Amino acid sequence: MSRHAALSPSRAKDFKQCPLMFRFRTVDRLPEPPSLEALRGTLVHSVLEHLYDGPAAARTEEAAQGLLLPRWNAHLESKPRDRDLFEGPAHLETWLGSARTLIGNYFRMENPTFIEPAAREQFVNARLASGLAVRGIVDRIDEAPNGALRIVDYKTGKSPGPRFQDEALFQMRFYTAAIALSQGKLARRTQIIYLKDGRTLTYDPVPDDVDAVVFELDSIWNAIEERLDAADFEHKPSRLCDWCHFQENCPAFGGAAPPMSEEGAAALRTAKGTAPAEPSDEWRPAAHRRPRGGIQNSG
Q1: Is 201 helix (H, G, I), strand (E, B) or coil?
Q2: DSSP sequence for 206-253
Q3: First to last CA, the chain
Q4: Residues 6+ apart with CB under 8 A from 74
Q5: What DSSP character marks residue 119?
Q6: pLDDT in tens, 140-193
Q7: CA distance 226 to 130
Q8: What are the distances in angstroms from CA 242 to CA 25, 100, 234, 245?
Q9: Given the DSSP bridges, would you call strands 149-155 and 133-143 parallel, antiparallel or unpaired?
C-alpha cells in the first residue's frame, strides 16, 4: 500500500488558527526551533507510557520517577542534538525537576494500579465517506469489562478557561470519530488530564458528535484544497502570533512568504482518496442509524 497524507487534529487546529502557518508547517515544512516545553511533554508522555509496562502493583510514583532518566537517555540516543538545548548541567537539572513535578502530579489525579490500558500511544486511522484520510495518536485507551472505551490524553500545560474548553475538546472529538469509523465503537468517555494544574476535562460523546466532526473535517479539507488550488494561504493575525516561529516569513510582521512548495502540496493532496463504501453504522444505537440508500433528514 502506498503511503498517503492524512489530516490530524493538530494540523486541523493549525489551519483553523492560521492558514499561512498551516502552509509553512505542513506544505512547505519550514524548520522550527526546538522547544524545551514540547521536549518536556515528550519525555513525560514517554514515562507515563512505559509506566504501564510493568505489573499493576509496581506502578508507583517512585517507579515512575525512576523511569525519567532512562527515558531521557533513550531519547538522547535517537536525538543527541537535543542535549545542546541546555546551557549547562544546572539548566538541565532544573528542567528535569519540572518534569518530575508533572509526573508527581499525575499520581494525585489517577491511581495507575487500578488501570489496565487496552492501548498506549495508539495510532488511529480512518477514512471518511468523502475519501479524506484522518489520523492521530491517542495517549491511552482504556476498555472496561463490558467493552466501554475511555480515551485519555495527557497535557503538560495548564487547563483552559471555560471560554476555550470547547476548542481543547476538538482533539478528543476527533479521536472519538476516528475510532468510531475505523473500529465501530463509540467511546463512552474522553478525558484530558492537565498535569500542570491537576485538572481533568471530561467529555462524553454521543452519536451526533461523530457526524458533526466529520462535517467539520470535510469543511476544513475543502478550505485547504481551495487554497492549494490558488497557491494562496492567508495569514490570520491573533494574540497567538507572539508564539509563532514563522514571523520572518509572515506579511503581518513585514516578511514575505516564499513560493509554496509544489512537492509538498502534491504530497498533502494524497490525503483525499477515492471514497470508500459507506462506513459501518454499528457503533450507533439502532434508533440513530442512518437509513440505507438515502439521505437522513436532520430537520
Answers
A1: strand
A2: -HHHHHHHHHHHHHHHHHHHHHHHHT-------GGGGG-TTGGG-GGG
A3: 41
A4: 46
A5: E
A6: 999 999 999 999 999 999 999 988 888 889 999 999 999 999 999 999 999 999
A7: 16
A8: 16, 28, 17, 9
A9: antiparallel
Closest listed residue to residue 75, CA positions, set 116, 34, 131: 34
Report the alpha-carbon distance of residue 148 to residue 128 in Å, rounded.
23
Confidence of residue 288 (pLDDT cuts 50, 70, 90): low
Q: Between β-strands 149-155 and 189-194, what pairing exists: parallel, antiparallel or unpaired? A: parallel
Here the contacts of 107-111 (C-beta below 8 Å, separation 24 or greater) are: 107/61, 107/64, 108/198, 109/193, 109/195, 109/198, 109/200, 110/193
CA distance 60 to 113: 8
What does the block give as the cell for 99? 518534569
C-alpha cell at 192: 484530558
* 190 within 8 A of 161, measured Cβ to Cβ: no
Instruction: Quote the cell numbers at residue 120.
Output: 498506549
Q: What gap in Å lies between CA 249 and CA 224, rounded to an integer?
A: 20
| CA 102 – CA 68 distance, rounded (Å) | 11
